[in-house]
Protein 1
Amino acid sequence: MEKQIRRFASCLLLLALSACDQRQEEQGPPPPASISEYKQRIDRLAPQQRDAVFIRAIRDAGMDCQKVVGSGSSGLQFGMPSWVARCDDGRDWMIMLDKGGRAHVARREEKKG
Protein backbone atom coordinates (compact mmCIF):
# COMPACT_ATOMS: atom_id res chain seq x y z
CA MET A 1 0.00 0.00 0.00
CA GLU A 2 2.77 2.43 0.92
CA LYS A 3 4.49 1.67 -2.37
CA GLN A 4 1.32 2.53 -4.31
CA ILE A 5 0.95 5.83 -2.43
CA ARG A 6 4.54 6.78 -3.26
CA ARG A 7 4.05 5.84 -6.90
CA PHE A 8 0.82 7.86 -7.02
CA ALA A 9 2.52 10.86 -5.36
CA SER A 10 5.41 10.64 -7.83
CA CYS A 11 2.98 10.58 -10.74
CA LEU A 12 1.16 13.63 -9.37
CA LEU A 13 4.45 15.48 -8.96
CA LEU A 14 5.54 14.66 -12.52
CA LEU A 15 2.15 15.68 -13.85
CA ALA A 16 2.30 19.01 -12.00
CA LEU A 17 5.84 19.71 -13.25
CA SER A 18 4.95 18.90 -16.84
CA ALA A 19 1.95 21.23 -16.63
CA CYS A 20 4.22 24.04 -15.42
CA ASP A 21 6.67 23.48 -18.27
CA GLN A 22 3.85 23.41 -20.80
CA ARG A 23 2.43 26.70 -19.55
CA GLN A 24 5.83 28.39 -19.92
CA GLU A 25 6.18 27.08 -23.47
CA GLU A 26 2.70 28.31 -24.40
CA GLN A 27 3.45 31.83 -23.14
CA GLY A 28 6.99 31.99 -24.49
CA PRO A 29 8.89 35.23 -24.97
CA PRO A 30 7.00 38.31 -26.09
CA PRO A 31 6.93 38.84 -29.86
CA PRO A 32 9.57 41.24 -31.17
CA ALA A 33 8.51 44.81 -31.72
CA SER A 34 7.99 45.96 -35.28
CA ILE A 35 10.14 48.68 -36.80
CA SER A 36 7.25 51.15 -36.55
CA GLU A 37 6.94 50.38 -32.82
CA TYR A 38 10.65 51.11 -32.32
CA LYS A 39 10.28 54.38 -34.25
CA GLN A 40 7.23 55.38 -32.21
CA ARG A 41 9.06 54.67 -28.96
CA ILE A 42 11.94 56.91 -29.98
CA ASP A 43 9.65 59.64 -31.31
CA ARG A 44 7.76 59.71 -27.98
CA LEU A 45 10.91 60.37 -25.98
CA ALA A 46 11.64 63.83 -24.64
CA PRO A 47 14.51 65.47 -26.58
CA GLN A 48 17.01 64.93 -23.74
CA GLN A 49 16.06 61.24 -23.46
CA ARG A 50 16.33 60.78 -27.22
CA ASP A 51 19.76 62.44 -27.21
CA ALA A 52 20.86 60.06 -24.43
CA VAL A 53 19.72 57.06 -26.49
CA PHE A 54 21.57 58.38 -29.52
CA ILE A 55 24.85 59.06 -27.71
CA ARG A 56 24.72 55.48 -26.49
CA ALA A 57 24.23 54.24 -30.07
CA ILE A 58 27.08 56.44 -31.33
CA ARG A 59 29.48 55.29 -28.62
CA ASP A 60 28.43 51.63 -28.97
CA ALA A 61 29.35 51.96 -32.66
CA GLY A 62 32.86 53.00 -31.56
CA MET A 63 32.50 56.61 -32.64
CA ASP A 64 33.79 59.61 -30.69
CA CYS A 65 31.14 61.91 -29.26
CA GLN A 66 31.20 63.44 -25.82
CA LYS A 67 27.65 64.79 -25.83
CA VAL A 68 24.68 64.94 -28.19
CA VAL A 69 23.46 68.54 -28.23
CA GLY A 70 20.46 67.99 -30.49
CA SER A 71 18.72 65.48 -32.70
CA GLY A 72 15.84 65.20 -35.10
CA SER A 73 14.07 62.86 -37.45
CA SER A 74 15.55 62.43 -40.89
CA GLY A 75 12.81 60.37 -42.55
CA LEU A 76 13.69 57.12 -44.27
CA GLN A 77 17.26 56.33 -45.30
CA PHE A 78 17.82 53.05 -47.17
CA GLY A 79 14.27 52.09 -46.17
CA MET A 80 14.99 52.55 -42.45
CA PRO A 81 13.68 55.24 -40.09
CA SER A 82 16.54 57.57 -39.31
CA TRP A 83 17.55 60.51 -37.18
CA VAL A 84 20.45 62.95 -37.19
CA ALA A 85 22.27 63.57 -33.93
CA ARG A 86 24.70 66.49 -33.54
CA CYS A 87 27.61 66.12 -31.17
CA ASP A 88 29.08 68.97 -29.17
CA ASP A 89 32.08 69.04 -31.56
CA GLY A 90 29.74 69.95 -34.46
CA ARG A 91 29.81 66.57 -36.20
CA ASP A 92 26.51 65.02 -37.29
CA TRP A 93 25.75 61.32 -37.09
CA MET A 94 23.00 59.44 -38.92
CA ILE A 95 21.30 56.80 -36.79
CA MET A 96 19.18 54.28 -38.71
CA LEU A 97 17.01 51.55 -37.21
CA ASP A 98 16.79 48.18 -38.94
CA LYS A 99 13.90 45.70 -38.67
CA GLY A 100 15.47 44.03 -35.64
CA GLY A 101 15.64 47.32 -33.74
CA ARG A 102 19.42 47.56 -34.12
CA ALA A 103 20.93 50.99 -34.65
CA HIS A 104 23.31 51.64 -37.54
CA VAL A 105 25.46 54.73 -37.15
CA ALA A 106 27.18 56.62 -39.96
CA ARG A 107 28.94 59.97 -40.20
CA ARG A 108 26.70 62.50 -41.91
CA GLU A 109 28.46 65.06 -44.05
CA GLU A 110 27.00 67.93 -46.02
CA LYS A 111 27.23 67.69 -49.80
CA LYS A 112 29.63 70.19 -51.27
CA GLY A 113 29.26 71.91 -54.59
Protein 2
Amino acid sequence: MKKICLLLLFIPLVALFNSCTVALNGASIPAEMKTVSVELFENNAPTVIPTLSQDLTEALKTRIRNQTRLTITQNAADAVFEGRITGYDIKPIATQGGNDRPVAGGTRLTIRVSVKYTSNLNTKQSFEESFERYYDFNLGSTNLNTAQQGFINQINGQLTEDIFNKAFAQW
Protein backbone atom coordinates (compact mmCIF):
# COMPACT_ATOMS: atom_id res chain seq x y z
CA MET A 1 0.00 0.00 0.00
CA LYS A 2 2.89 2.36 0.78
CA LYS A 3 4.36 1.70 -2.66
CA ILE A 4 1.13 2.75 -4.34
CA CYS A 5 0.98 5.95 -2.29
CA LEU A 6 4.60 6.76 -3.13
CA LEU A 7 3.95 6.08 -6.81
CA LEU A 8 0.93 8.38 -6.79
CA LEU A 9 3.05 11.13 -5.24
CA PHE A 10 5.91 10.55 -7.70
CA ILE A 11 3.83 10.93 -10.91
CA PRO A 12 2.89 14.62 -10.32
CA LEU A 13 6.53 15.43 -9.52
CA VAL A 14 7.68 13.99 -12.84
CA ALA A 15 5.03 15.99 -14.67
CA LEU A 16 6.02 19.12 -12.77
CA PHE A 17 9.67 18.93 -13.80
CA ASN A 18 9.04 17.98 -17.43
CA SER A 19 9.66 21.27 -19.30
CA CYS A 20 9.35 20.12 -22.89
CA THR A 21 6.25 22.13 -23.77
CA VAL A 22 3.42 23.87 -22.02
CA ALA A 23 -0.09 22.86 -23.05
CA LEU A 24 -3.10 25.04 -22.27
CA ASN A 25 -6.49 24.55 -23.90
CA GLY A 26 -5.00 22.22 -26.51
CA ALA A 27 -2.16 24.60 -27.29
CA SER A 28 1.37 23.30 -27.45
CA ILE A 29 3.75 26.19 -26.87
CA PRO A 30 7.49 25.57 -26.52
CA ALA A 31 8.71 26.32 -22.99
CA GLU A 32 11.32 28.74 -24.34
CA MET A 33 8.67 30.88 -26.04
CA LYS A 34 7.89 33.84 -23.80
CA THR A 35 6.74 36.71 -26.02
CA VAL A 36 4.60 37.28 -29.09
CA SER A 37 3.91 40.34 -31.20
CA VAL A 38 0.58 40.92 -32.92
CA GLU A 39 0.81 43.59 -35.62
CA LEU A 40 -2.27 45.52 -36.69
CA PHE A 41 -4.13 43.61 -39.40
CA GLU A 42 -4.33 45.99 -42.35
CA ASN A 43 -7.72 46.22 -44.07
CA ASN A 44 -7.24 45.66 -47.82
CA ALA A 45 -10.78 44.43 -48.48
CA PRO A 46 -12.72 46.18 -51.25
CA THR A 47 -15.40 47.03 -48.66
CA VAL A 48 -13.78 48.73 -45.69
CA ILE A 49 -15.43 48.61 -42.29
CA PRO A 50 -13.57 51.25 -40.23
CA THR A 51 -13.24 49.24 -37.00
CA LEU A 52 -12.60 45.80 -38.51
CA SER A 53 -8.78 45.98 -38.44
CA GLN A 54 -8.66 46.98 -34.81
CA ASP A 55 -11.41 44.53 -33.80
CA LEU A 56 -9.69 41.52 -35.40
CA THR A 57 -6.27 42.46 -34.04
CA GLU A 58 -7.61 42.92 -30.51
CA ALA A 59 -9.61 39.67 -30.71
CA LEU A 60 -6.41 37.75 -31.52
CA LYS A 61 -4.51 39.48 -28.70
CA THR A 62 -7.31 38.68 -26.26
CA ARG A 63 -7.33 35.00 -27.25
CA ILE A 64 -3.55 34.80 -26.75
CA ARG A 65 -3.76 36.57 -23.37
CA ASN A 66 -6.62 34.35 -22.16
CA GLN A 67 -5.33 30.99 -23.40
CA THR A 68 -1.54 31.19 -23.04
CA ARG A 69 1.14 32.36 -20.65
CA LEU A 70 2.76 34.45 -23.43
CA THR A 71 3.42 38.17 -23.04
CA ILE A 72 2.32 40.39 -25.90
CA THR A 73 4.98 42.91 -26.84
CA GLN A 74 5.64 45.42 -29.59
CA ASN A 75 9.39 44.88 -29.41
CA ALA A 76 11.42 41.92 -30.64
CA ALA A 77 9.38 38.81 -29.88
CA ASP A 78 9.77 35.06 -30.04
CA ALA A 79 6.88 34.93 -32.53
CA VAL A 80 5.11 37.48 -34.70
CA PHE A 81 1.59 37.57 -36.15
CA GLU A 82 0.96 39.91 -39.05
CA GLY A 83 -1.63 39.96 -41.77
CA ARG A 84 -4.29 41.73 -43.72
CA ILE A 85 -8.00 41.53 -44.23
CA THR A 86 -8.47 40.61 -47.88
CA GLY A 87 -12.22 40.22 -48.12
CA TYR A 88 -15.43 41.49 -46.60
CA ASP A 89 -18.56 40.45 -48.49
CA ILE A 90 -22.28 40.56 -47.84
CA LYS A 91 -24.20 38.50 -50.38
CA PRO A 92 -27.62 36.87 -50.64
CA ILE A 93 -27.52 33.08 -50.35
CA ALA A 94 -31.19 32.32 -50.94
CA THR A 95 -34.03 34.12 -52.63
CA GLN A 96 -37.72 33.97 -51.94
CA GLY A 97 -40.74 35.49 -53.53
CA GLY A 98 -41.90 35.35 -57.09
CA ASN A 99 -40.04 36.07 -60.30
CA ASP A 100 -41.43 39.59 -60.33
CA ARG A 101 -39.91 40.69 -57.01
CA PRO A 102 -37.38 38.24 -55.55
CA VAL A 103 -35.90 39.18 -52.18
CA ALA A 104 -33.04 37.74 -50.18
CA GLY A 105 -34.26 34.91 -47.99
CA GLY A 106 -30.86 34.61 -46.36
CA THR A 107 -27.67 36.63 -46.38
CA ARG A 108 -24.05 35.67 -45.77
CA LEU A 109 -21.34 37.89 -44.32
CA THR A 110 -17.87 36.55 -45.18
CA ILE A 111 -14.51 37.79 -43.91
CA ARG A 112 -11.19 36.61 -45.39
CA VAL A 113 -7.84 37.26 -43.80
CA SER A 114 -4.28 36.46 -44.86
CA VAL A 115 -1.97 35.70 -41.92
CA LYS A 116 1.78 35.38 -41.65
CA TYR A 117 3.05 33.76 -38.45
CA THR A 118 6.79 33.79 -37.88
CA SER A 119 8.32 31.74 -35.10
CA ASN A 120 11.78 33.10 -34.37
CA LEU A 121 12.53 30.00 -32.29
CA ASN A 122 11.55 27.32 -34.80
CA THR A 123 11.06 28.31 -38.44
CA LYS A 124 9.31 24.99 -39.16
CA GLN A 125 6.33 26.28 -37.17
CA SER A 126 6.06 29.47 -39.25
CA PHE A 127 3.30 29.71 -41.86
CA GLU A 128 1.56 32.02 -44.28
CA GLU A 129 -2.07 31.09 -44.86
CA SER A 130 -5.50 32.51 -45.64
CA PHE A 131 -8.48 31.95 -43.38
CA GLU A 132 -12.14 32.54 -44.20
CA ARG A 133 -15.24 32.40 -42.05
CA TYR A 134 -18.84 33.43 -42.62
CA TYR A 135 -22.05 34.07 -40.78
CA ASP A 136 -25.48 33.41 -42.31
CA PHE A 137 -28.40 35.52 -41.17
CA ASN A 138 -31.91 36.64 -41.99
CA LEU A 139 -32.39 40.32 -41.46
CA GLY A 140 -36.15 40.35 -41.35
CA SER A 141 -37.01 43.59 -39.59
CA THR A 142 -33.47 44.06 -38.23
CA ASN A 143 -31.34 46.86 -39.62
CA LEU A 144 -28.02 45.55 -41.03
CA ASN A 145 -26.07 48.49 -39.59
CA THR A 146 -27.42 47.65 -36.13
CA ALA A 147 -26.69 43.90 -36.29
CA GLN A 148 -23.46 44.00 -38.31
CA GLN A 149 -21.06 44.46 -35.35
CA GLY A 150 -22.48 41.38 -33.63
CA PHE A 151 -21.98 39.33 -36.80
CA ILE A 152 -18.40 40.62 -37.12
CA ASN A 153 -17.67 39.68 -33.50
CA GLN A 154 -18.88 36.12 -34.11
CA ILE A 155 -16.74 35.75 -37.23
CA ASN A 156 -13.71 37.29 -35.50
CA GLY A 157 -14.08 34.69 -32.76
CA GLN A 158 -13.99 31.89 -35.33
CA LEU A 159 -11.09 33.42 -37.26
CA THR A 160 -8.96 33.96 -34.17
CA GLU A 161 -9.63 30.38 -33.09
CA ASP A 162 -8.44 29.11 -36.49
CA ILE A 163 -5.32 31.32 -36.42
CA PHE A 164 -4.53 30.39 -32.81
CA ASN A 165 -4.94 26.67 -33.50
CA LYS A 166 -2.75 26.82 -36.60
CA ALA A 167 0.03 28.60 -34.68
CA PHE A 168 -0.11 26.82 -31.34
CA ALA A 169 -1.98 23.56 -31.78
CA GLN A 170 -0.65 22.72 -35.26
CA TRP A 171 -4.15 21.82 -36.48
